[in-house]
């Protein structure tokens, strides 16, 4: 007997009919996945900001991080919070929507409208769940290329992203070098380290240990492994912040009291903060999607597709690269960015490298870090001049 | 209706009747706990190695780490594995059982025979569970002092321990300076940082998220939150190893296959290793004990009891200190040891400080790291000469 809930879960509704632009690809346009499967039909949910110019030369693709989405610069339809990169994207901002046509799509395997495990499998009428083939970073990028084709854009002015988004940037530059004028991989790595895999595995095990995960088929039963997913998010969240930032922000401060309770309540502010991060995450993210996107990162090793040589991935590239790291980022440390830069140098590619001095850790790429924002503005302005993209009207130029 | 299993769970049996020496303190000798409660009766399980000399001048107390126990240098009664510090403790080893009388006791709140949450609460006949008052590092040390009294020892030649054991060493030196001839805090900190608390909180939430935790009363039902505890252990285990050690040992190596499975199986060796660590841990450790010992560390802030001045904790101390850190330890980094050294210097205490160069991370204190072993041997030999402890017979002197 199968459980047949009368109503779809929130995550399945968003997955199928998102608050976004959507392009649907029919059976004649499958996504050829690294798992060896043709995914068909499938859909991509995306947002755009600004206007594509007549020359179609001003398009920027933004690639989101692990649990990000396409809602870069608009109020998020589920959380009601601002977009995740409003500090960087908008009129007059470094990624200037008065000048550029900005595209952001939800990744394959996500849960905000692009086909993912919470989407309805047309063959069964139920959620794909873990029957969806595993997704790779290259699959995500292949799907994005189909979206860019659909939008009639030949060459992207820029592909930009941090963390898992930066992996997509690197994959774009390797897979479609002629379609990427500039590439900005931020706070990322060309392959997942053993420690990176380890933290992701803890998160996955936490989700799968929750009995409400139900072998992955929780949406059929109208439930969700929220406790396991919240713990996964708590563990991951620690890796997004530097030890210094935690100490400065929380230290050993108690939560609204003068003395510890001698109980397992959240005595310390840091405990309260983590619990909040865990609990709020489960309201906006699908647990199976979390398994898929973490796995995609773990499988990422760009050099592997090029005989073990990362330089070979970029051989002959005309793309202008700007590699950015943050010195307090211990998840994707500067050494990982340096490895990318060394490969780009070996490939004789054009590359700028900036290590930003900040104590805010990995999440610095999402925050108002003035040196980072100025770096992005300067790099893009120089590249726009080289590409001949006019300044917005009324701003000289 | 209460569930009444016919047989006690393994952890409760070991907690009540351990494979160890045991000293029981009756109602007339309560443990005065920081929680404001007199714990009575209670018991301490311990092991000894070597012989106490006539002058009672050669006793060394070893303090174990978070999930360690008293089985330092004998086969572990549950796992069948060697003791956790056989590399350091034994005949002819740096902590030479031919020369010293070595004592190791299980901490209060533990699960190997000293009173902890798995022990039977005499008032109810059931496991204490989370009705046991919260335990602090100072409580652990108070109990150890009662054991040392019971053994008729006035002054310990040395108190030695790593990680949470190092916290106990610091507490011993502060609480009972006249009873500690030498103190060796290893890979530890005088207070838990925000990041330290954060990782422990993830572990606790993982245990408590497991429905088999049953509000803490799982032993009554003859079950155990093994899945949540395993995930907690996996997360903690990452913090015990350095990024470099993980990369060297596992890197991105696949587990017994040539290509990834495109599934959520353990593709990578690091995943398999972590799952093994998690699964084997639950066979030897009680989940509630894990909550208690992590909480004890989080509450630890030695300076707090001395008006916020760590130096004040050691004022007038005649103890000889040897502080040891490992340069790749990111859980209790060298900076935390330096803070201890600075305080000891400010208190005009006798202190040696050694930072060991190794890529093995926090767990280096448990491993065969030659420089560390030589350091321990040298420091103890010099101190033994100062204390007038003779060399073992047949070894000159």
Automatic annotation (TrEMBL), chains A, B:
InterPro entries on file: AB_hydrolase_1, AB_hydrolase_fold, HAT_MetX-like
GO MF, one example: homoserine O-acetyltransferase activity
Catalysed reaction equations from the record: L-homoserine + acetyl-CoA = O-acetyl-L-homoserine + CoA
Pathway: Amino-acid biosynthesis; L-methionine biosynthesis via de novo pathway; O-acetyl-L-homoserine from L-homoserine: step 1/1
Nucleus as UniProt keyword: no
Top-level lineage group: Bacteria
One GO CC annotation: cytoplasm
EC id: 2.3.1.31
Listed Gene3D superfamilies: 1.10.1740.110, alpha/beta hydrolase
Transmembrane segments: none
Record keywords: Acyltransferase, Amino-acid biosynthesis, Cytoplasm, Methionine biosynthesis, Transferase
Matching Pfam families: Abhydrolase_1 (PF00561)
Biological process, per Gene Ontology: homoserine metabolic process; methionine biosynthetic process
Location of the active site: 163, 329, 362
Residue sites binding substrate per the record: 233, 363
Compartments reported by the entry: Cytoplasm
Domain AB hydrolase-1 residues, every copy: 58-368
Top enzyme class: transferase
Function comment: Transfers an acetyl group from acetyl-CoA to L-homoserine, forming acetyl-L-homoserine.
Family: Belongs to the AB hydrolase superfamily. MetX family.
PANTHER family from the UniProt entry: HOMOSERINE O-ACETYLTRANSFERASE
Complexes and interactors: Homodimer.
Protein name: Homoserine O-acetyltransferase
């Amino acid at each position: 007997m199968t459980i047949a809930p009368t109503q779809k879960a929130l995550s399945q509704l968003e997955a199928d009919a998102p608050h976004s632009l959507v392009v649907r690809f029919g059976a004649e346009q499958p996504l050829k996945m690294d798992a060896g499967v043709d995914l068909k039909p499938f859909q991509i949910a995306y947002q755009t900001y600004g206007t594509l110019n007549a020359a179609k030369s001003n398009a920027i693709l933004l690639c989101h991080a692990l649990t990000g989405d396409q809602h870069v610069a608009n109020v998020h339809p589920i959380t009601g919070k601002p977009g995740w990169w409003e500090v960087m994207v908008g009129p007059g901002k470094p990624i200037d929507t008065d000048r550029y046509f900005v595209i952001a799509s939800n990744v394959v395997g996500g849960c905000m409208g692009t086909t993912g495990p919470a989407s309805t499998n047309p063959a069964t009428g139920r959620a794909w769940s873990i029957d969806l083939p595993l997704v790779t970073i290259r699959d995500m990028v292949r799907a994005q290329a189909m979206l860019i084709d659909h939008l009639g854009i030949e060459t992207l002015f820029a592909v930009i992203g941090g963390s898992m988004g930066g992996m997509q940037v690197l994959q774009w530059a390797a897979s479609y070098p002629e379609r990427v004028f500039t590439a900005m991989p931020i706070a990322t790595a060309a392959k997942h380290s053993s420690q990176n895999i380890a933290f992701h595995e803890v998160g996955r095990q936490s989700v799968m240990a929750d009995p409400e995960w139900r072998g992955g088929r929780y949406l059929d039963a109208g439930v969700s492994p929220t406790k396991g997913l919240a713990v996964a998010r708590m563990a991951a969240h620690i890796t997004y912040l530097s030890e210094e930032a935690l100490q400065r922000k929380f230290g050993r401060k108690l939560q609204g009291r003068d003395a510890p309770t001698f109980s397992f309540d959240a005595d310390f502010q840091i405990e309260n903060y983590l619990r909040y991060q865990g609990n709020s995450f489960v309201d906006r993210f699908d647990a199976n999607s979390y398994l898929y996107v973490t796995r995609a990162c773990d499988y990422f090793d760009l050099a592997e597709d090029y005989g073990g040589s990362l330089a070979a991935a970029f051989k002959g590239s005309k793309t202008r690269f700007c590699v950015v790291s943050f010195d307090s980022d211990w998840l994707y440390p500067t050494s990982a960015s340096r490895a990318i830069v060394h490969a780009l140098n070996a490939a004789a590619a054009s590359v700028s490298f900036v290590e930003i001095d900040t104590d805010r850790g990995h999440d610095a790429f999402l925050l108002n870090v003035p040196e980072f924002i100025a770096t992005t503005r300067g790099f893009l302005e120089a590249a726009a001049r080289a590409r001949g993209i006019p300044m917005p009207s009324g701003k000289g130029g």
